Amino acid sequence: MSVDLFVDPAQPKRTSALLFDQIRTAIGDGRLLPGDRLPTSRELASELAVSRSTVTAVYGRLLAEGFLTGRQGDGTFVARELETPRRSHAGSTGSIGEYSTALTPRRSIAVPTRPSVPTDLRIDLRTGRPDPRLFPLRDWRRCVVEAVGVSPPGYGDAAGLAALRRALAVWVNRSRGLTASADEIVVTAGAQQAFDLIVRVLLVPGDVIAIENPGYDMARRAFTHHGLRVAPIPVDREGIVVDAIPPTARAIYVTPSHQSPTGVTMSAARRRALIAFADQRGAVIIEDDYDTEFRHVDRPLEPVQRLDRSGRVLYVGTFSKTLSPSLRIGFLVAPVPIANAVKATRALIDTQPPHLIQSALTTLIVSGQLDRHLRRTRREYSARHSVVLERSAVLFSSGRILVPTRTNAGLHAMLSLARGHDAEDIAQRLRARGIAIDTTAAWWAEDPAPGLMVGFGAANSEELHQAFDELDRALRRRRRSSAAGA
Ligand SMILES: Cc1ncc(COP(=O)(O)O)c(C=O)c1O
Predict the structure, then answer these.
(1) What is the maximum alpha-carbon separation in the chain?
(2) According to the 3-state scheme, what is the secondary structure of 156-200?
(3) Which of 384, 404, 376, 386 has its CA nearest to residue 463?
(4) CA-to-CA dists, residue 256 to 32, 175, 179, 230, 285, angstroms
(5) 105 near 85, Cβ under 8 Å?
(6) Strand pairing class (208-213; 229-236)
(7) What is the pLDDT of residues 425-459, one digit of tens each?
(8) Is 320 near ligand 1, meaning CB less than 6 Å away?
(9) For 360, which of 147, 196, 215, 405 could close a Cys bridge (C-beta 3.0–4.6 Å)?
(10) Within a 10 A sphere around the Cβ of 234, how many other Cβ atoms?
(11) For the segment 16-64, what is each residue's pLDDT rounded down to a tens digit?
(12) Does residue 400 have a pLDDT over 80?
């Protein structure tokens, strides 16, 4: 490798984070080029005098985030499909294929590509994906046809169509127990735009934002991109450990209904502690309620927003799980002055949400078709959830995963592997069998622990059984080879 890497003996706990950053930066600024081969984990560990499992974990995370590619036995390489423009070694002129530019992004983000999808994809266990086979196509088509039956009205409200915001207010209050009025709602391009808008309106570069660790990587990336200082906070069986949040935090991003990725539901006591912390410190809470509609086992706890007496909780919802992420539609519930500031900011970015999609969604909600769709899909996803729980319980009792899978909701479950296990290696074995699966690496801001994410949104019960059979085999084989190597 043509890049020198350093470890800081004074910060042994940060070794993996430092190595991860150095390799990612070297890729981002072109010192490592697509196709470059990295040393084996054994070579690099010995060169830097760190443990091999540290290097394996760093490589695993880089693989999971798409910076590296590799196959068992072939070596590890810088990915060829990175989307970030890179400067050439020769000088400051960048070149991508036949294009070249003298410009360098001032705020460069190395956009990770997700691990490659097997070309012979049989079963899709990637997270965050509802089943396109369950999309309510007939109802949606009717709603869209109705929406295109009127001429597009021209410029509209940057906060979203008034009729949609009214419908959303009724729907979220009824289905999620919020207390929201139409004036407090801003329609966004998914949850991701809501995160971006919240930061623009309420925070400035250098502000500290506490996030769950492990936690949702796309939110973390958005915060980092805006120059916020991210403070990763551990998550236990009750959710984010409020006592570990630094007093300087200006904001706290949480997924209380269904922690991403662990699946933990934040306890009522923790919710109260979180509100008390935010009240005391004047901080804002960003409540990301991304998949609350799919509660399989128990009743949901009331949202943190409902406990809020001082207007400091911003609630984010999305239709990416209930309908489809390709619709790019979500919403933010915020106190009116904040909603107005968000609306003014959105107007500067993309003027307003597209009319057609808002209009179709309004009909879907108001006609009751969305509720019907949710009842139907909840039944199906709950059946899949049972398969995942049942099969992961067997993996746990046979010692192949470390902790029982805790999840009562949503469309994914996390499987924790023993430290030292190579989750990426197992994921690769599954990919070679046509099963797309993520490791948990991308969810960790630091100190990654090995794990796999089983998304059951896009795989039905039969496919899940097949995938678990393969997973079981991969874990057994892994065990045998480590026993043989010991
Ligand atoms: C924790 C979390 N929040 C939000 C989202 C939804 O994002 P969006 O609405 O931008 O598609 C996801 C999707 O995977 C998620 O996992």
Answers:
(1) 71
(2) CCCCCCHHHHHHHHHHHHHHHCCCCCHHHEEEECHHHHHHHHHHH
(3) 384
(4) 39, 16, 17, 19, 11
(5) yes
(6) parallel
(7) 999 999 999 999 999 999 999 888 899 999 999 99
(8) yes
(9) 147
(10) 12
(11) 888 998 898 888 877 888 888 898 888 898 888 899 989 988 988 898 8
(12) no
Is the pLDDT at 206 greater than 80, yes or no?
yes
d(CA 79, CA 36): 8
Looking only at the bridges linking them, the beta strands covering 438-439 and 451-455 are antiparallel
Element (H, E) at 105: none
* Distance in angstroms (rounded) separating the CA atoms of residues 434 and 447: 30
Query: What are the residues facing 234 on neighbouring strands?
Result: 213
Ligand 1 atom nearest to 127, measured from its CA:
14
Q: How confident is the model at residue 247 (pLDDT cuts 50, 70, 90)?
A: very high
SS3 234: strand
Is residue 480 over pLDDT 80? no
Q: Is the dihedral of CA 164, 198, 301, 277 positive or negative?
A: negative
CB 332 within 8 A of CB 314: yes
Quickly state the pLDDT bin for 72 (edges 50, 70, 90): low
What's the gap in Å between 46 CA and the centre of ligand 1?
A: 39
Mutation choice for ligand 1 from 212, 235, 320, CB with most ligand atoms inside 8 A: 320
Read off the tokens for 202.
Answer: 């309420």
* 165 touches 182 (CB < 8 A): yes
Q: Mean pLDDT over all residues of the chain?
A: 89
pLDDT tens per residue across span 323-337 = 999 999 999 999 999
State which ligand 1 atom lies nearest to the alpha carbon of 319: 9
Ligand 1 atom 2: residue of nearest CA: 290
> Measured between alpha carbons, how far is 392 from 407 in angstroms, rounded to an integer?
11
Is the CB of residue 192 below 6 angstroms from any atom belonging to ligand 1?
yes
Atom number in ligand 1 closest to CA 215: 1
Question: Measured from the CA of 216, which atom of ligand 1 is nearest?
Answer: 1
Pocket of ligand 1 contains residue 257 by CB under 6 Å: no
Hey, which of 124, 129, 218, 326 would you mutate to test ligand 1's pocket, going by the most ligand atoms within 8 Å of its Cβ? Answer: 218
The DSSP symbol for 389 reads: H
pLDDT digits (tens, 9 = 90+) for 116-164: 788 889 999 999 899 999 999 999 999 999 999 999 999 999 999 999 9
Element (DSSP H or E) covering residue 286? strand 284-288
- Output DSSP code: residue 183: G
Query: Which residue has better confidence, 199 or 90?
Result: 199
Distance 290 CA to ligand 1 centre (A): 6
Composition of the chain by helix, strand, coil, percent to 5: 45, 15, 40
